[in-house]
């Protein structure tokens, strides 16, 4: 199972120079989580949804991107790709040829698709599951984004007033609901003399600068207006490849895991599920 057999060859990316708005449009239109940044065909960085949300005031791709990204050869195995992604918490790896030219992209979703084909019947175990928390469906969207940033999670289940899952919010949904907000801010660089405010010395030392600020903003609305309501859940005894197939078909990054009473007990993230490739290799 080689990277070349599962990678995406028609790669969506940006070339330097580009700006943040170009990337935001791409992520909104495609729903992907990040794009490689190239210069004369060679990969020089990667920009992700997290970069846009965390550096909301930055507009230049060169300052948004993670520089010197780890890349992989098309002749590498999927096991090697899975090991790199799980070890560094990456969601994608640019695939380059011997000359360093971008020829493809291998993502967590591509690895999940491979797992679905393996027909692994073993049940998902605690080893693959992540503890989780939930938010109330009336929580303001900007607060949800901040909580997800602090907690470093890609998705959070949403509950109604009865404690039942009513939806799920992910980084993809945050980007889909975001907008660019332009404003003007003022900085006062006055020297602050003790002279009378109307003297020439005081006037000369006053330096006020106005400048435009452009930010990626989330609207002030409850998270229920942005979440995905049709939530697909799985029981703890679901099979590994079965879960991978669900993720592939519905283009999901995660699945809430429920008990017999349909109560949330954990989350199954795709980034954890791909570890099965390394374990299969060991066996």
Could you tell me the CATH topology label of the largest domain.
Answer: CBS-domain
Large-scale geometry: flat
Strand order of the largest sheet: 1-2-3-4
Topology pattern, helix = H, strand = E: HEHEEHHEHEEHEEHEEHEHEEHEEHH
Q: Provide the helix percentage.
A: 25-40%
Overall number of strands: 15
Number of helices: 12
Q: How would you characterize the largest beta sheet?
A: 4 strands, mixed
Structural class: alpha+beta
Radius of gyration: 23 Å
Mean pLDDT: 85
**Overall CATH architecture of the largest domain:** Roll
Distance between the termini: 16 Å
- Fraction in beta strands: 25-35%
Per CATH, the class of the largest domain reads Alpha Beta
Total domain units: 3
InterPro entries: CBS_dom (IPR000644), CBS_dom_sf (IPR046342), Diverse_CBS-Domain (IPR051257)
Keywords: Amino-acid biosynthesis, CBS domain, Methionine biosynthesis
GO biological process, one term: methionine biosynthetic process
Protein name: CBS domain-containing protein
């Amino acid at each position: 199972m080689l990277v070349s057999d599962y990678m995406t060859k028609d790669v969506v990316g940006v070339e330097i120079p580009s700006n943040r708005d170009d990337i935001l449009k791409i992520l909104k239109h495609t729903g992907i989580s990040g794009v490689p940044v190239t210069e004369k065909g060679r990969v020089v960085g990667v920009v992700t949804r997290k970069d846009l949300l965390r550096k909301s005031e930055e507009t230049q791709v060169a300052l948004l991107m993670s520089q010197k990204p780890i890349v992989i050869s098309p002749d590498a195995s999927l096991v090697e790709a899975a090991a790199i992604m799980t070890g560094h918490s990456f969601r994608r790896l640019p695939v380059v040829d011997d000359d360093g030219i971008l020829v493809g992209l291998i993502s967590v979703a591509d690895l999940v698709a491979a797992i679905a084909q393996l027909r692994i019947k073993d049940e998902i175990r605690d080893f693959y599951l992540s503890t989780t928390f939930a938010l109330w469906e009336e929580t303001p969207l900007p607060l949800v984004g901040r909580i997800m940033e602090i907690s470093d999670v890609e998705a959070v289940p949403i509950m109604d007033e009865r404690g039942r899952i009513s939806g799920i919010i992910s980084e993809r949904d945050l980007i889909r609901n975001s907008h660019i907000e332009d404003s003007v801010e003022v900085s006062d660089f006055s020297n602050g003399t003790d002279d009378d405010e109307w003297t020439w010395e005081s006037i000369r030392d006053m330096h006020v600068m106005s400048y435009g600020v452009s930010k990626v903003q989330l609207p002030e609305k409850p998270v229920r207006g942005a979440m995905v309501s049709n939530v697909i859940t799985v029981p703890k005894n679901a099979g590994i490849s079965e879960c991978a197939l669900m993720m592939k078909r519905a283009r999901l990054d995660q699945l809430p895991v429920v008990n017999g009473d349909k109560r949330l007990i954990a989350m199954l993230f795709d980034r954890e599920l791909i570890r099965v490739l390394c374990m299969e290799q060991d066996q």
